[in-house]
Structure formats: structure tokens, C-alpha cells
Prior knowledge:
By secondary structure, the protein is an all-alpha fold. The chain has 8 helices and no strands. The longest helix has 30 residues, at 111-140. 26% of the residues are buried.
Amino acid sequence: MHAFLIFSILYGVIPLLYYYFGKINRLALKEAFPFIVVVFIASVYEFVGTNLLQISYEKWYLKYKILAFVSIHYFFYHLLKQKYRYFFWFYILCFIAIVVINNTLFYHHNYMDKSSYLTVLQTIIVIHFSIAWFYQLFNEMQEENLFQNSNFYIVSGLFICYCGTVYLFLTANHIYTTNKTVFQYYWLLNIVLNLFLRTTLIVAIWKARLK
């Protein structure tokens, strides 16, 4: 289990390395680049900070949530050609409100619970803008082969990963305090889906290679 976890963490550095050292059309990935960087940063921190130095995830979770929120927001904002601006601003205000409430009214709550509130919001955002992107794509009918579109893999990866883990994050604290052994098996789902997301990033970058 631990070896699998380490593999999944280090696997996250591959997309950015491939982006820089592969023969890639970087213009095709300009919307996704910030998120690729965030995945790299998260992987390095989890390996060095959490695994080697044994720093509690509690000290990192909010920083990661902010980085993930900003990079995913940037991705969809430009992917949707700056449409739905009111929704984007609405979600930004919701995110800020949750962060403020977590650090005031819910200050003494477990960090897993506070993290889950932000995960729910991020899942709603991913579902909303993924559907909007697919609608825009099929409505404009400009893409002859969807499987050649790098963004298709990134959107699909985000959609499946967030939808697949939202319930886990909502119940994580309860499961952890009730039975830590069972929690490890539940957390395996999070590891597998993160591997899936990182694989879709690698495939997306591969699809953007120069021919």
C-alpha cells in the first residue's frame, strides 16, 4: 500500500517533465499549463513534506486547495472562451466565503471536514463547466475527432476524479475516526482516481506532440 502511494505521488511529476522535455505543441496546452504545474508542486510536496519530513497534511491542505481552485478556474475560464463570467465570479466568492467560514466559525473543526467543503464546491464547478464545455463543443461542431483533442482528456479526467472522490472526502473524517484500517481501503480509491487524472494529463500532453 505504501509503495503504491509513493508511486502515485511521484507519478505526478511526469506530466510537467513531459511537457518541458517532450516535443510538444505547448500552445495547445496553454489553458492546462497552470494545473499541470500545480500537480507537479503537489507531488513534490507530498513526497518531500508529507512522506520524508512527516509534515502534517493539515499544514498544506488549504494552500493546495487554493492552487487547485485557481488553476482549474483558469483552465475552464479560457477553455470556455471567457463565457459564463458571472458564474466564474460567483464561484470565486463562494470559495472565499468557505475559506473565511472555515477559519472563523469552523476554526475548531477537523481539517478533513474543512477540506471536504472546498472539495464539494470544486466538484460542482468541475461538473458545471465540464458540461458547458461539452455542450459548446458539440453545439459548434468544430471538432472532427474528439479523441485527438487534448482538452477532452483533461476535462474527462477532472470530471471522473472529482465525482469519484467527493463522497470519500465528505465522509473521510468519520471513517478515519471510526476505523483507521477501513479508511486505508477507502483512501485507495482516491489514490487510484488521482493516478487516472495524472494519466489523462500525460495522454493530453502526448496528443499535443509536434508531428
